[in-house]
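We store sequence with structure; for instance:
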Amino acid sequence: MEASLIISVYTDTISLKAVLDSLKNQSWNNFEIVISEDGESTVMKEFIATYPFKHSWQHLTQEDLGWRKNRALNRAILASNADYLVFIDGDCVLHPRFMEMHHRFSKENRILAGKRIKLNEALTEDLLLEKRSSTDIQHYLFKHFLELRKMGFRFQEEGLFFDPDKLVGFIPRLRKMKHLKGCNMSFSRTAILSINGFDEDYVLPAIGEDIDLAWRFEKAGFFLFSLRNLAVQFHLHHKENWMDQSVNIKLMEDRKKSNQYFCLNGIKKIANPI
């Protein structure tokens, strides 16, 4: 296979099923699935063991000792079999051409960065109950686009796919990305090894799993390339638990000041010389 799709999960098997179902409709399929679980749920294990996968797959677990997503991701990188890595979360359903776009625009010096539309409760329920599939969401979004904000959608403009080979292909080229979203990014194995993977010193959600990577990649000589409106994904509605990011922000700023883009506590464990 040419790519490994790494899916971060915790305990939500209902959302994961919708995500896996969307993988069956992909226009490009030369990839494996690596389910990276930050825990070891029996329910998750049983669900994955009985799911009818179309692609080759593997399921990685680790002891549930609190938020250790970065450790789980580093383990997934080591276990993956391809030289190109695509990362999503287990609550983001994929547009049928999602994997095609990540593969098509991949280059050794690029870090591909996309976004996601946040669905409302009604459309999320339709997806989870299989009343609607990932293949027909696009028509729904275009049809109701002017009403989506009032209907409870967020970042509605990110849910529209524009074919790069058609007249509308110029639209994605106008969209830029300044940051990475951990739910929609991809890069080569060479790129992530050049910064020693995810920094496991981050033990709280957000920043360490994506924003921190962006400046580190830049220091290592890579640049962000936007896949907005190309690698489209649909974030399933759920209650969000926002956390204070001051600890993560301080950690990242300290790393920047010391220019420590090759982290010490990453894929390789390097003793701090101080």
